[in-house]
Automatic annotation (TrEMBL):
<dbReference type="InterPro" id="IPR034405">
    <property type="entry name" value="F420"/>
</dbReference>
<dbReference type="InterPro" id="IPR045567">
    <property type="entry name" value="CofH/MnqC-like_C"/>
</dbReference>
<dbReference type="GO" id="GO:0051539">
    <property type="term" value="F:4 iron, 4 sulfur cluster binding"/>
</dbReference>
<feature type="binding site">
    <location>
        <position position="66"/>
    </location>
    <ligand>
        <name>[4Fe-4S] cluster</name>
    </ligand>
</feature>
<dbReference type="InterPro" id="IPR013785">
    <property type="entry name" value="Aldolase_TIM"/>
</dbReference>
<keyword id="KW-0004">4Fe-4S</keyword>
<protein>
    <recommendedName>
        <fullName>Aminodeoxyfutalosine synthase</fullName>
        <ecNumber>2.5.1.120</ecNumber>
    </recommendedName>
</protein>
<comment type="pathway">
    <text>Quinol/quinone metabolism; menaquinone biosynthesis.</text>
</comment>
<keyword id="KW-0808">Transferase</keyword>
<dbReference type="InterPro" id="IPR020050">
    <property type="entry name" value="FO_synthase_su2"/>
</dbReference>
<dbReference type="GO" id="GO:0005506">
    <property type="term" value="F:iron ion binding"/>
</dbReference>
<keyword id="KW-0949">S-adenosyl-L-methionine</keyword>
<dbReference type="InterPro" id="IPR058240">
    <property type="entry name" value="rSAM_sf"/>
</dbReference>
<keyword id="KW-0408">Iron</keyword>
<feature type="domain" description="Radical SAM core">
    <location>
        <begin position="48"/>
        <end position="282"/>
    </location>
</feature>
<dbReference type="InterPro" id="IPR007197">
    <property type="entry name" value="rSAM"/>
</dbReference>
<dbReference type="GO" id="GO:0009234">
    <property type="term" value="P:menaquinone biosynthetic process"/>
</dbReference>
Amino acid sequence: MFGEIRRKIKEGERLSREEALFLFNSDNIYELGEMADEVSRKFNSNRVYFIVNRHINPTNICVNRCRFCAFSRSKGQEGAYELSIDEIIAQLKDAEREIGYLSEVHIVSGLHPDWQFEYYLEMLSTIKKEFPSIGIKAFTAVEIDYFARKSGLTVEQTLIKLKEAGLDLMPGGGAEIFNSHVRAKICPEKISGERWLEIIKTAHELGIKTNATMLYGHVESYEHRVDHLMKLRELQDQTGGFLAFIPLSYQPENNEIKVPYPSGIDDLKTIAVSRLVLDNIPHIKAYWIMLGEKLAQLSLLFGADCLEGTVIEERIAHSAGARSKKGNTIEELVHLIRETGKVPAQRDSFYNVIKLW
Ligand code: V47
């Protein structure tokens, strides 16, 4: 089947479900990487993107208990925290002072039992007022669903209010694996895969770009991964609203799903197959926080074209045993990219190039 897949990739034809599955089951990692790199170059030439950003997690207090999550806490539990808007602004000012400027803030939070929707709106509008040129990438589809249920608004009304308050785009978290049997095992209280897709579709229809993720390496099978990719490809055909796809490599510490870390081969394979299957999503992100810096660098030769960014302070993956640093400097990201022979492209939230290094 490899010969036929190679022909299809050369001629820009779409891979089938069976072909995607065949690639996941293949051990021919070099050929897989070579094909994925060819596709990556078609989309992005020899560029690899990164952004100067800061991740902020306003609270870890969450009403859900996802079994893979080591970040969430109950109210009053040891380690539970809540950031005020002033504290968030102070963190952004510190980052700006340290680096000189910031291009984006990435905000993902727990589902707090008491915070009102207005708090999130004020958070966004205050950030926009203080930092008018920073892109705000905030709130997963899971949080949007929660805001809508708490406020009694429709998803559309919720998103419109967030957009008016300063939301520029949305991160891709909460997708996990769409299959309902897998979800029942790993995140029984979380919204369904269908609901995730429906909320993202609404966002796209309102002109809000989003990312998409897939959490892999826990209890799912290759079939589940392929189905997940197919659903994203289908939605992207309809809306064109996805900017980047980010495979999230499972981190197995301090949580309830006890399996080994995904292997380096599995990480590279997942990046490469994603690049080959998602022929309509322009960017594949190698999230160095979960892959580790060195494997993330290698994955740039296996189909990935983006290294996320400086991040500064990552909490979700590090609660679960991520072995990477919590943040990185521009110089280090540039170094990692240059050593692959590709060109470091510093970008804004929408992949416009700010500077080629
Ligand atoms: O939704 C939680 C995942 C996500 C673990 O869109 C875990 O640019 C691995 O979505 N092991 C949040 N993953 C992070 C996220 C993200 C990160 C970077 C960039 C973007 C983007 C989005 O983290 C959650 C969940 O799927 N997660 N626990 C864990 N133990």
